[in-house]
Amino acid sequence: MSVSTMEAALLLAGVLFMLGLISVLIRRNIIFMLISVEIMLNAAGLAFIVAGSKWVQPDGQVMFIFILTMAAAEVSVGLALILQIYHQLKTLDSDAANFMKG
Amino acid sequence: MENYIWLIPALPFLGSLLLILFGTRLSRALVAILGVGSVGFSALITILLGLQFLSEKPAFYQQEVWQWFSVAGFNPSIAFHLDALSIVFIFVITFVGFLIHLYSTAYMADDADFSRFFACMNLFVGSMLMLVMADNLLLLYLGWEGVGLCSYLLIGFWYKEPANGYAARKAFIITRVGDTAMAIGLFILFQTFGTLNIQAILTQAPEVWSVGAQMAVLVGLLLLGGAVGKSGQLPLQTWLPDAMAGPTPVSALIHAATMVTAGVYLIARMYVIFELAPLAQTMVAVIGAVTLLLAGFSALTQYDLKRVLAYSTISQIGYMFLALGVGAWSAGIFHFMIHAFFKALLFLCAGAIILALHHEQDMRKMGGLRKSMPVVFWTFLIGAASLAALPIITSGFYSKDQILWYTLAGPNGNIWLYLAGLFGAFITSVYTFRMVFMTFYGAPKTHLDHPPGKLITIPLVILAILSLVGGFIELPHNFAHLALFSDLMAPVLPGITANELLAANEWLFQVLAAVVSLGGVYVAYLFYQKSPGMLHSLERSSLAMKLHRFWFSGWGFDALYDNLLVRPYVFLANINKRDIIDSFYTGLARMAEGFHVMFSQTQSGVLRNYVAGIVVGAIMILTISLLL
Amino acid sequence: MSQTDFLHLMPLLILTVAALVNMLVIAAWRNHKIIYVITAVSFVAAFLSLFELRGITAYAIDPLFVIDGFGVFYIGLILATALLISMLSYAYFEQREEQKEEYYILLILSTLGACTLVISTHFASLFLGLEVLSVALYSLISYLRTRERSDEAGIKYLILAAFSSAFLLFGMALVYFSVGTMTFAGIATAMSGLQELPLLLLTGFGMMIIGIGFKLSVVPFHMWTPDVYEGAPAPVTAFIATVSKAGVLGIMIRFFLEVDGFRYPTLITIFTIVAISSMIAGNLLALMQKNVKRILAYSSISHLGYLLVAFLAGNQMGVEAITFYLVAYFITTVGAFGVVAMLSDKERDAELLEDYRGLLWRRPWTATAFTAMLLSLAGIPLTAGFVGKFYILAAGVSTQLWLLVAMLVLNSVIGLYYYIKVIAVMFQQPETEAETPKKRLRPSIYLASVGTLVVLTLLLLIVGVYPAALVEIIQNVFATAPEMVAR
Amino acid sequence: MILLWMIVILMAGGLLAWLSKKLHPVLPRWIALFAVSADFAIALYLWLGTPAASLGASPWLMQMEVPWVPQWGVNFILALDGLSLLMLLLTFFIGILAVLISWREIKVKTGFFHFNLLWVLAGITGVFLTMDLFLFYFFWEVMLIPMYFLIGVWGHANRNYAAYKFFIFTQASGLLMLLAILGLYFIHGSQTGNYTFNYFELLGTELAPEEARFLMFGFLAAFLVKLPVVPFHSWLPDAHSEAPTAGSVILAGLLLKTGAYGLLRFVLPLFPTATVEFAPWAMLLGVVGIIYGAILAYSQTDLKRLVAYTSVSHMGFVILGVFAFNQWALQGVVMQMIAHGLSTGALFIIAGFLYERLHTRDIGQMGGFWSKAPKMGVIAMVFVMASLGLPGLGNFIAEFLTLVGSWQANNWLTVFATIGVVLATAYSLRIMRKVFYEPAPSDHPLPDLNAREMLIAVPMVVVILWLGLYPQPILDTAQPSINQQLQAYQEPEVEKEKVAVVEVPEAKLRIEEVKK
Q1: Cα angle at A96 between A94 and A97, to 5 degrees?
Q2: How many structural domains comprise chain A?
Q3: How far is Cα B358 from Cα C212, in angstroms, rounded to an integer?
Q4: More confident site: C126 or C4
Q5: What ipTM describes this predicted complex?
Q6: d(CA B520, CA B431)
Q7: What residues does each domain of chain B span?
Q8: Which chains touch B (3 or more CB pairs under 8 A)?
Q9: The NADH-Ubiquinone oxidoreductase (complex I) chain 5 N-terminal domain covers which part of the protein (chain B) (predicted)?
Q10: Measuring CA to CA, which residue among C17, C93, C8 is closest to residue C52?
Q11: Which residue in B589, B611, D207, D428 is a FRET match for C140, CA 20 to 30 A apart?
């Protein structure tokens, strides 16, 4: 592959990352926030793969696997927490969870 | 004998120390013995020493008790230097002081704070002796401040009365102003001569400074400032009349006989400086002249017996300054001595009267005491005569005449000064006899109880005799030429020679002086005895009223200083009570709190804002890393 | 992996095993005490195993790890801290009805993560360590499920941490993309070649800084700190404040020194800004704060700012200063949160200033200990905090970072105010005679906590009065870490 | 070694006092009293044991040095010269008084109180003794915390605010000094390659004018705030008026003196050139302080606050004298430190006595006490007179020497300073009037001083009189160290060799003795 396509792929990852970022910013529902963060993580993974393929090394994909596992772990904990939150607040609106401030 | 010099001040100090420590527990008799005895003994020693001095005629006696301190060549010691000048002062202080103490035992007999009174009196005598015996200016300064303190303590002796306290503070602070000037003078002297030893300075000064040298003038003026403060001369005279708030013996001792003449002593002591600084010396003369007139006028208008005496004191010291100013040194000192006698006498008499009229001081409420208290009358009359300088018989005549004479005929004599002095003499005798007539003649207005006892009358008599004959040790040379006193002073203070062409007809001026004083008496008689109606008609004229009010208030100096200095200072102090600078720091604190509130807004607790925060940070960092 | 590799990784292995054993034991039969003992023992064992590695010169386990003096010291620091925290945890959890045992597993795991971090020399291991650390932390923070504050803190931390590690990862990816290797050494060599850094690389570093900065809770990535500190159980808060930061700081220093980041003004500028703003924001936020845990949170932000000053000094003295300061700061922080934990009861942590009013009159010794801790935080002599601050100042002055140093001084003055405020509250005489302290568990439970507090206080004073010993150790550590002594 | 003991006794005494509270409530008082007296005895022994003549060229009586943090070149150096000796005597004398005053006044937490009291004293002792800049800063801070507690726990109504203010002011300034110390340390290190905080070695440092100026300001910051000099004084009135009597006495009598001591010991010899160019401003500050403090004192209605402002005014003389750079002025400063320590301390003690009896510090509430409490009146009179600089009392010698000295340096400022003395008269007399003379608005019962209180007051009177009438012993003791500080201003080169080369071997030699 030529370098220019590499750049393009990286750009794609960047765009993906930005999308995730923005949706974290605008979403209020915690689950959606979690999902968008995952998107960002996957964007990073994609970037790794791109980089790996640029240097023709497996490392990029290795990192991607890592990221996936980690993301899975994170999401599982996250969902557990969200359950708890829902029990207590009866809502998933992240803005409602602001007992601690100042 | 000269080994016991140190006892002279030590005894009063010891006395006052004992009284302070145990005064409250001792019986009144014991207190009196301690208080009077200590001064009495030092008077005794003084007299013995004086006799020895007269017989041996040494230049001076010197005694160092201990080295006070010594820093890099600045080593004043607690040491005494006795020459004729200081001996005269010591004599007056101890002897008159002794009499007044004696008098006080009766006067203060039924006062609650008997012991405190004597403690302070002794302390005063001690410090005053320090002042006049010191061989260096720092020790002199110690005595100088010491007497200031004592006058503060004694003026405010009856402290329950706020007015007294006010008078006391006024005295202390105003004299302190003068002292400040003096202190600065000392700094300069030390810088120039590397020592504060009086004799050393006197000897070196002519070598270092030429006549009229700027520094000399400066020092002269500064010392004069100190003198003016203590001696109640213009412009720092305002404290003296108020100082009458103290018990009468105090007024007699401090504000007539001794302390207020400290200024005279200082100037006489440092005469070399003043001779090197003609300007300063002229200032002395002028201040003296002006003061004696102003005070005289004020004295004319007073009704309070003691205030009259106070103003007369101011004006008499004015004469002394005048004398010093024209270089008639010994004349000035001579007048000091005589004045001490008759002024103490007058005050003590006044005290006796006041006591008899249970603390009534207003002359308008007095009168007709001639019959009821003859001793006091006669003694007072003598005192008055001496103050008014009635010719021939009173010593006041001789001392004052000498001053007037040299004011005119002295090398730096001056006709205007002379006229001022002459007119002053006239006023003096007017207000003196105004006093006599108002108090002792006419109809009795207040019933008097317990006429004065022995302890009171004895000192009066002694002082009366002194103020009659005391002057006979110095008689004009055209009239049984006798100059014991000026001979005594000769080794210490430079003599003075009269201008020849005037000297020829000196008698003319003596007659003039005599006429003036007698004239004064007549005027007083006219207004206050023969036909009071004239006085009243005079008083009714609006101008006279204004003048009267103006003079009565002592030429409005008090008001002036109040509005010029005191009020602004107090105002300034009070508006800044909370200390403006502090508010700056509190301001800083407020600012920090403000920032805190601002920042804590960002901690909204809302998750998305936190995310936003991170994003902002991210943008910031990325922009930096891309731009730089 | 050879046997020597195992030997060198012994502490980490011990921790791993400990975690597994705990799990099995719990499965067999729940008992707080036993789990607690196992944990403590394993920490001690791991710590002791470090003595095998004393005076070691860099032993690389390519490409992921290197075990050198620096790493050993930091692992030691982390383990010791974790041990102390677990000590304090026992009494704290004993009085709560949740299932207590898993807490220790999570504690061990996140410690393990931190340890992995400080010895890793490769993005992969870095990432691995970081995530092991964080994922365990999520659940630790929200361990007391029944408190909604705890959950709130948990979810906040989770989202934000994931968010920031996305940045970190993307940054890594970019770096990898532009230099073609993920080992620090490789990156260093690649970079030493080029004078001006390519844009991508810089962007990568920038994003990594975001990820790291979040974990270090420096401005502007600090916002989570107070909430998480407040919501988390006191011992966990102590853990976040100390262990996790030690790990991240360790890796940061390692990486930065390796690639010699001090050559690049861009990075210096960024760090300077971050440092200053952290100091100021942290202190000002804490100024009028009424909640002790939040006060400590904010103060930790500013303390990180102080640390960055020494970090920016960039010479050996700086690194020594950081290390020394960390030790001092850990002693202090653990102690402080220990006191908080001690005073907490079933329902809630003792976190409001009110809970401390007149403490000196109720429980003089606890109050004294807490006072000592606060004074140390404020950097007052006789305490470790002072020497630490002195060391940092010295490092700053030695490289003429006048602006930063001035800021440090200014801020430690502001900081004084709120530390003293807490002390003042404790020393206030209660109007009503001291009310009887609330019902507590039997004293023997508190033995561990009290003992720990005593030890900490003594350490605080010893380090404060005779720092020479510690300084010596640290200097030796860096003597054996060659690539550090480069400058 | 004996120097170390002085500090150790205090610290150990403090801990003992704290713990002994459990055994018996009165024990702490006795322990404290004993500890301080022991130190006082030691100091006295040292003083009488060394006739002033024996302090020849080198002012150092004894020295000890043991490495403390070798890696940083920090040594535990204690050294004693005339100046420090005098300061120590003052410290312990006032310390004893402080313990005695608190005997009845302090009722709660007596153990902890005496712990703090003794540790403040220990810190102060350290400050006066140490010749290692790191150690100096260390002690400098050590004396603050216990002081903070003294104010914050046993103070009056508004104690917290005052305590904060005191602590933050002193800390802020102290940190600046720390920066300066570090700067000096690195400059000296980079010059000689020998990184050390040793005062004697640092004396030799050559500094570029710029550096010197900045470092000097660093040191000045700490000392001027502590002194205090006017724009930085505003912590003092609060601290003084809110502290318990013992606290105020120690603040006024000792803590302020550490500032003056610092100026003499460090600023003058370390930065000869910089100080000379700064001198006029410093003297100006002094004069401003004298007058500003006096004006503020005049308007105060809180007795302790009033006295506090008077010490602002009096400390003005100190800085005025220090920057006159001549023997008279510096001797005056030393005298001022001692005399002011006593006189102001005494005034605070009297304020304390009154507060114990009336539970108010408002002079509006007082009055006419002369008749009720003549003893108190006399003693108050003595110290009021001292504070307005009456000859025959210690303060006069101090102020006169200072002014004589400063006159040589700067005429106009001296004139204004002298005017300040008049203002001093105004506020001092105001005390007497309000408290002892004018009748009180309301009538309180006022028992006169009891035996214990006389035991406190009389020695102070005696000492202040002694200082006023025969200060020579003090002056002689201070002389050599003052020459030392001034050498930089006579022949700088000689001074550098002398201190850097001659003193240090001697120090080593001393240590040998110590070891034996």
Answers
A1: 70
A2: 1
A3: 96
A4: C126
A5: 0.88
A6: 8
A7: 277-540, 578-627
A8: A, C, D
A9: 68-118
A10: C8
A11: B611
**Tally of domains in chain D:** 1
Quickly list DSSP for D105-124. H--SSHHHHHHHHHHHHHHH
| Model confidence band, residue D503 (pLDDT cutoffs 50, 70, 90) | very low
Contacts of B15 (CB under 8 A, 6+ apart): B34, B35, B37, B38, B39, B118, B119, B122
% of chain B residues with pLDDT over 90: 5
Q: Is A33 on the interface with B (CB under 8 A)?
A: yes
D313, two tokens: 């005014």
pLDDT at position C176 over 90 = yes
Residue C92, beta-bridge partner list: none
Query: A27 to chain B: nearest residue by CA?
Result: B608
Res C1: pLDDT: 65
- Quote the minimal CA–CA distance from D52 to chain B in Å: 13
Please indicate, yes or no, if residue A102 is contained in any of the structural domains: no
- Token reading at D4: 């170390």
Q: What is the mean pLDDT of residues D89-98?
A: 92
* Domain span at D16: 2-515
A98 has a chain B CB within 8 A of its CB: yes
Smallest Cβ–Cβ distance between B600 and the set A24, A100, A102 belongs to: A102
pLDDT of residue D287: 93
Summarize the confidence of residues C191-210 as an average pLDDT: 87
Residue A99 lies in a domain: no
Full domain range(s) for residue A48: 3-92
| Residue B85 near residue B489, CB atoms below 8 Å | yes
Measure the CA–CA gap between D16 and D27, rounded to whole angstroms.
9
* CB of B414 closer than 8 Å to CB of B285: yes
Q: Give me the pLDDT at residue A65, please.
A: 93
Our CA dihedral for D325, D328, D329, D331, rounded to 10 degrees, sits at 110
Residue from C224, C278, C284, C413 to probe the interface with B (highest B Cβ count within 10 Å): C284
Give me D229's structure tokens: 């000099």
**pLDDT for res C14:** 94
Q: What is the pTM of this model?
A: 0.90
- For B538-554, letters b (16+ CB in 10 Å) and e give eeeeeeeeeebeebbeb
CA distance B136 to C390: 56
Query: Is A98 a domain residue?
Result: no
Amino acid at B102: L
Residue C290 distance to chain B (closest CA, Å): 12
Is D319 in contact with D282 (CB distance < 8 Å)?
yes
Measured between beta carbons, which residues in chain C are less than 8 angstroms from residue D137?
381
Search chain A and give the residue with CA nearest C177.
Answer: A51
How close C285 gets to chain B, by Cα (Å)? 5
- Cα–Cα distances (Å) from C61 to B521, C120, C251, in that order, read 126, 9, 16
| AA letter at B307 | R
Tens digit of pLDDT for each residue in A58-86?
Answer: 999 999 999 999 999 999 999 999 988 88
CB pairs under 8 A between B and C: 86
Are C266 and B624 in contact (CB < 8 Å)? yes
The pLDDT assigned to C96 comes to 80
Neighbour count for residue C16 (Cβ, 10 Å): 16
Residue A16 counted as domain residue: yes
Give me the sign of the Cα torsion angle B385, B388, B391, B394: positive
State how many domains chain C has.
1
| A41 closest CB neighbour out of C169, C177, C294 | C169
Among A28, A100, A102, the residue with its CB nearest the CB of B608 is A28
